[in-house]
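User: Show me sequence and structure for the first protein, then do the same for the second.

Assistant: Starting with the first protein.
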Amino acid sequence: MLLSAVIEGDRRDTAEFMNGDRFPKWPEDMRGIWSGRLAFMEQELGTFPRKKPIDQARHTISDTCAAFARQPGGVYRLNVPTGGGKTLSALRFALTHAKEWNKSRIIFTSPLLSILDQNAEILRRFIGDDSLILEHHSNLVEPVNDTERLRELELLTDTWGSPVVITTLTQLLNTCFSGNTSAIRRFHSLCNSIIVIDEVQTVPNKMLTLFNLVVNFLSEICGTTIVLCSATQPSLEVVQHPLGCLPPEMVPWQEALWSVFKRTELQNAGQYRLEEIPQLIKQVLSDCNSLLVVCNRKDEAAYLLKELRNEPCLRFHLSAAMCQEHRRNTLRDLQAALDPNIVEFQVTGDYALFSDPIMRLGGEKCSYQIPTYEALKGIVSSVYWKPTLIWRILDVRVMNPIQTEVKGIRPIKYGGGNDLAFYTYLKNCRYQVRACFDWNGNRPELAQDRNENKHHQIALRMIEKGGRRDIFLGTRECQGYVEPCAFGSGKGAYDDLPELILTLE
C-alpha cells in the first residue's frame, strides 16, 4: 500500500510538471454524486413492470439489496438464481452503500469479456452519466480523434481514478498480485471503495488462498466493501487461509422467492461419443423448437456445426474467441431467430417534430433530437395494428446527421384568428427500426386471433406497401414514408461514436 502511494505521487507530480497533465479531481465527499446516480437509477427501475411473479421477485431482491446497503463495510455474498437481476441489484446496493458510507469509488469486475460487454451496457444505462465511468479491458477502443479525451482516459486507466471502474477479474488480480509498477500504482485506489466481483467462482483454485488474504486485507484494513456475486458461490471458508469471517448473505434463501426462477429440469442423457452427438441433436430437435449445445472445446463446436450444416434449421456459433462486433451481430441474429415476429423497416421524412407538452410552453414547439419510443410505436402501428397485439420497439438507428430547422408558424388561436410561433423541426430524417409484437393480455376475448404467423406476414406486406395508414413523424404536418430494409445495413451517422447523452438543456 505504501509503495502504491509513493509510485502514484511520484508519477502524478512528474506528469503534471513535465507534460502539464491535469488529473481529473473528485470531491472528498462523494455522497452528492452517489445520491444523484441512485435517484436516477431508482427512477429507471420504477418503469419496470410488476405484473408477473418473476417481475415481483426481481423487485423484492433489488429492494432487499438496497435495504442491506445500510450495513457497514465488509465482505458479503449476493447469491441469487440466474435471471434474478443480479447486476442491477448489485449496482443498487453499491450506489446506496456508497451514499450511506461516502465511498470513493465502485469497481465492477467480470471474468469474461462477453459478460463484461453486457454488464457494461447495463451499468452505463442505469448510472446515466458516462463521465463517471472508466472501462479498462482489451476490447475497449479509444477515441483517437479526440486527443484530449484519449489522454484523460490514459491517465484514469493508470490510476483507476474514476468514481466507477468496469474491468476484468484479470486486471483486478493483477492489481492485487502483480509486481508490475503500473499494477502496484492502482492498488491504493481499492481503499475505501466497493468492489463487486461477478462470477466469483471463476477465481483459479490455485489462487484462492491469495485471494482470501487480499480480501481480508482490503476489508479489514483498507475500509473496502466487497460483494461476491454468483449463483454458485465457492467455498472460500475451507481453503488453507479462509476468509476472516463467513460472509453474510445479502438476500437470504427463500423457497417461495427462489421457486419463481426454476425454469430448467436436469436429465441424464447418458454417455455419447462426439460422433454420436449430431444424431442426438436431431432427435431432440424433433420434439422442440430450439436447442442449446455447450461444448468444452472449439474444435468440438466446429465439428457439430459442420455435421449439421444440411439440417433444415438455423445454426449459430458463439465463442469467447469472437471479436466484440462479431459476437454482438451473432446475438442479434439469434434473438431475431428466437423471436420470429420481428419486422425491420426504414422510415424517412423531410421534417419531424417529436415533442411533449413540457416543450410547448407559450405555443412554441421544439423537437427532441431523436424519435421517442411512443413515436416509433405510433409509426409501426400506422403500418399495421390489431387489438390482438402490442408492438414493442427493439432497436433504432439514426442514419442521417441530426439537423434542425426553425420555422415561423401561424397557428390558429382558440378564440379565432392566428398567432405567431416558432417551431424547431428535425430535417432530412432517416431511421432504421426493429420491432416485434406481443399478445395483448388485456384482451383475452381475442385469444382465438393469436395467430403469430398470420399477423407477422400481414405486417411484412404492409411495410412493403408503405403502411395501411398515413405515416407521421411526430405531428400531422410531418409526413413519413416506410419501406423494408435489412437492419444494420448501410452507414449510420453515429455508428462510430460512443453513447451520447441527448438533452434539451
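Switching to the second protein now.
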Amino acid sequence: MEYTNLLAAASTAANQQSMLPSIILMVAFVALMYFMLIRPQRKKDKETNEMRSSLKPGDRIVTIGGIVGTIVKIKEDSVIIAVGADRTKFEIQKWGISSIVKGRKPAAATKEEKTTDESKKRKPKRLNKKEDEQKEEAKPAAKKEEAPAKEAEAKEEPAAEAKSEDAE
C-alpha cells in the first residue's frame, strides 16, 4: 500500500512540474498583450479625449467622416460647425471629431484674400476655347512646313547614295 502511495505522490509531482511551463507561458502571453495592445490603445484614447475637451470656437476640425469645418459653438456633448463657402452650420457629436487641423487659415481669411487679390482672375471659357483653337491651327501649319523639308532631305539622300556608287 505504501508503494502505491509513493507512485501517486510521484505522479502528482510530475503533473505539477509539467503544468508550470504552461502557466508561465500563459502569464507571459497576457503581459505581452497588455504592453503591445491594451496600454498603447489607452494612451491614444486619453490623448483623443484631451483633444476633444480642449476644443474652442474658431478651431478647424476634421470629423471621422472626413468633413472639414470650423467650430462655431460648443455644447456639453456636441459641437456646431460651419462648413463650406456658404457657411452651412450643423451639429455633430464630440466623439465624431477626428482631429484639429493646424497650419491653415480660417475660411473668413481666405474670403478676404480672394476679394483683395483681383489680379488672378480666371478667363471665361469662351476665351480659353478660342486660344485652344488658335494653338491647334498653328500646330498643323508647323507640321506642313516640316513635311516639305523632310521630303527634300529624302530626295537628297538617294542622290548622294547614287554618287557614291558611281565613284566606286
